[in-house]
Amino acid sequence: MIYNLYIFDRHCVCIFYIDWHRHRKSGGIMGSNNAGTTSTTTSMNGQPDGGDSGGSSSSPAHSAAANNHLASHHSTTSQLTSATSMFSDSRLVNIEEEAKLVYGVVRTLRNLVNKLSGNQDGFISYRTSNYKLHYYETQTGLKFVINTDPSTDSLRPVLRQIYTNFFVEYVVKNPLAPVGHPGGEGVNNEYFKAAVDKFVKNLPVFDS
Predict the structure, then answer these.
(1) Among 55, 124, 175, 180, which one has the highest count of C-beta atoms within 10 angstroms of its own C-beta?
(2) At what angle do helices 76-86 and 95-117 cross, to 10 degrees?
(3) What is the domain partition of the chain in residue ranges?
(4) Which CATH class is domain 2-47+79-207?
(5) Could you give phi then psi for residue 35, rounded to 5 degrees?
(6) What is the pTM of this model?
């Protein structure tokens, strides 16, 4: 199982990502092929990994029209199906595309829950047969998302602690840290990364 933590700013940009590989089989993005537990962090300002497009090409106008057409027909079901496949052991999607997909799923489900319940804080988590997504949003619009195995209890308090104990301490209070993250500059703070990594690895649920 791979644990993934994403932090999105109020502009929907992923500004921090870290994953923990637990007994991963092989391959995948940014991964270790060895059994055991390792962690990987990355800022979100790099270029997409790219890949083979199958030799096809299209004009910018055609691509924009096609993208708009596809976006208008995306459903919650298709997003969840894509996300479920993404978190299997053989993920091929790159980190930036993964973050966009995760945010899309979160936004769709959050809006759905808000409409049904009228509660702005009603969306907490959702679970599939492969993983469970936990969600926490701050009053300033930061969104914390972590994916775990399906049997994990709610980690919303854990995400709140990551924000209050580490993000505020090492990022918000850091006079050298940027106020915003234009273009997905990302959080590049080694103290924050190390603190989050240690904190999550020491959670009882992580070793279970």
Answers:
(1) 124
(2) 140
(3) 2-47+79-207
(4) alpha beta
(5) -70, 165
(6) 0.68
